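Query structure, 432 C-alpha cells:
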C-alpha cells in the first residue's frame, strides 16, 4: 500500500482547496478525533500553496483528457486506485500517529463519476460509522455525480467542493473539452441549497452513531463549500478572474475560492507571458484581492477595471487602490468609521476593531496604533491621529508608491522567485 500512497499523494499535490476552518465537533469520548475551527495542522507545498490534512487522490485513473492535468487519460503514468478500506486504514493510522487531524480526498474518474463517487461515499461512510472517526473531512465532488450521492455524502463530510477548473467556458472548452461549466455549477447549487439542513429521518445509515445508542443528527456540509481555478494557463485578465470570484461568492455562498498557478506538467500549453514575473506572484495578488472582497468591503470593480485589467506586481491591491484614490486621504483615526479604516493600508480587520473600541475611552497616539497591530510604515502615509501626522505627509503618488514598494521588495522578491516555502514530504515522517 505504500506504493499506492506514494503515487496518489504525489498526484494530489496540484489540488490546493484544502483549508479546514469553519466547523467544530467533539466526539465526546465515543470515537476518534475532534474537529476544531482552527485546529487543523497545515504544511506548505514547495510552490507556496497551503496543504493540510492527509491529502490524497482516491484514484489517478481518469477517463478525461484535460491538457493541464498530469492524470489525463493520454498520459503514460503509473495508475492505481485505493479501496474504501485502504482509505480508512490510512486515515486512522496517520491520525493515531498524530500526523494528521483529518482527510482531504479528491479523485480522478474510474468508469464514470457515479461509480467513483459511490466508492468514495463507501470509504467516508465506513470512517464515520465503523471507525467512528470524527475528524475533519473534505471531499471533492466530481461533476456529473448524481444528486442522490451528493446528498448522502454531504451529511457525512465537513466540506465539499467542485472545481471550476478554469475561469471561463471558452478556456474550459479549449483545454478540457470533456468538461462543461454547467456540470460544475449544478453540484455547487445543490450544495448551496442544502447547507445547514439537518438530516431527515433516523433510519439512514449515514447518521453518526452515539456512544449509548441512537444517532447524532448531522448538518449538510457544515463547513460550506469551496472551489479552485487554474490561473495563468489561458488569457483571462485578473479583472475577469476577480469578477468570476465575486459572482461565485454571491451566488453560491462559497467559503473560499482557491487560485492554482498554472504548472505546465505536460509541456503542451503555451501560457501567456507575465511580463517577467512568476505565476506565484500573480496568484499571491489574487489571494490578497480575494481577502479584500470577503472581509474589507471592496468590490471587484473598485480594484480593477477594463482599462486597468491586471494587478500591480510591485504593490499589493489595497495599497495600489489607496494610491490611485489619494483624494480620499488622509483619514483621521479618531473620527473615521470602521469601513473607512479598513481601506487604509496597514490597518486590518483586527486593528480596525481595536481602534474603534479604544478611541471611545480616550485619545489615541501613534504609539497606541502600533501596539494595536497597525503597520505604520504603510499607514503613516494615509492617516492623521488627533490632527497630527507621524511624519510630514508627501501626498505625491509616485513618492508613496516607491516608498511602500521598496519596503515590500524583499517579500515580493521571495514570492516571485519561489524561495518563501519548503516542501514537507509525507515520507519524511518515518511512515512505513
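Result returned for the query:
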Amino acid at each position: 500500500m505504500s506504493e499506492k500512497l506514494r503515487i496518489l499523494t504525489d498526484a494530489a499535490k496540484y489540488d490546493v482547496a484544502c483549508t479546514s476552518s469553519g466547523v467544530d465537533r467533539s466526539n465526546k469520548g465515543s470515537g476518534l478525533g475532534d474537529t476544531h475551527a482552527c485546529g487543523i495542522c497545515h504544511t506548505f507545498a514547495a510552490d507556496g500553496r497551503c496543504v493540510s490534512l492527509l491529502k490524497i487522490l482516491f484514484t489517478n485513473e481518469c477517463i478525461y483528457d484535460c491538457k493541464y492535468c498530469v492524470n489525463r487519460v493520454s498520459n503514460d503514468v503509473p495508475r492505481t486506485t485505493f479501496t474504501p478500506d485502504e482509505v480508512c486504514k490510512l486515515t486512522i493510522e496517520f491520525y493515531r500517529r498524530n500526523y494528521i487531524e483529518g482527510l482531504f480526498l479528491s479523485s480522478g474518474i474510474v468508469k464514470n463519476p457515479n461509480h467513483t463517487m459511490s466508492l468514495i461515499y463507501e470509504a467516508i461512510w465506513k470512517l464515520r460509522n465503523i471507525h467512528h472517526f470524527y475528524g475533519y473531512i473534505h471531499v471533492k465532488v466530481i461533476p456529473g455525480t448524481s444528486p442522490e450521492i451528493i446528498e448522502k455524502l454531504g451529511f457525512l463530510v465537513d466540506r465539499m467542493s467542485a472545481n471550476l477548473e478554469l475561469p471561463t467556458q471558452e478556456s474550459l472548452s479549449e483545454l478540457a473539452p470533456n468538461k462543461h461549466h454547467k456540470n460544475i455549477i449544478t453540484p455547487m447549487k445543490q450544495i448551496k441549497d442544502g447547507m445547514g439542513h439537518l438530516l431527515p429521518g433516523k433510519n439512514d445509515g449515514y447518521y453518526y452513531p452515539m456512544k449509548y445508542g441512537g444517532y447524532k443528527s448531522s448538518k449538510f456540509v457544515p463547513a460550506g463549500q469551496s472551489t479552485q481555478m487554474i490561473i495563468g494557463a489561458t488569457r483571462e485578465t485578473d479583472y475577469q478572474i476577480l469578477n468570476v470570484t465575486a459572482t461565485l461568492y454571491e451566488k453560491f455562498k462559497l467559503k473560499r475560492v482557491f487560485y492554482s498557478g498554472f504548472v505546465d506538467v505536460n509541456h503542451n500549453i503555451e501560457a501567456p507571458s507575465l511580463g517577467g514575473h512568476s505565476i506565484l506572484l500573480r496568484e499571491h495578488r489574487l489571494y490578497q484581492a480575494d481577502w479584500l472582497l470577503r472581509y474589507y468591503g471592496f468590490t471587484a470593480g473598485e480594484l480593477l477595471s477594463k482599462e486597468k485589467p491586471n494587478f500591480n506586481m510591485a504593490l499589493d491591491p489595497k495599497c495600489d487602490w489607496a494610491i490611485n484614490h489619494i483624494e480620499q486621504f488622509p483619514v483621521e483615526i479618531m473620527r473615521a468609521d470602521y469601513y473607512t479604516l479598513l481601506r487604509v493600508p496597514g490597518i486590518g480587520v483586527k486593528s480596525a476593531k481595536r481602534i474603534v473600541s479604544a478611541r471611545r475611552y480616550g485619545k489615541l497616539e501613534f504609539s497606541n496604533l502600533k501596539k494595536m497591530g497597525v503597520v505604520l510604515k504603510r499607514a503613516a502615509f494615509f492617516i492623521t491621529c488627533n490632527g497630527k501626522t507621524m511624519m510630514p505627509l508627501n501626498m505625491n503618488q509616485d513618492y508613496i508608491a516607491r516608498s511602500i514598494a521598496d519596503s515590500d521588495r524583499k517579500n515580493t522578491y521571495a514570492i516571485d522567485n519561489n524561495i518563501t516555502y519548503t516542501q514537507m514530504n509525507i515520507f519524511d515522517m518515518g511512515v512505513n
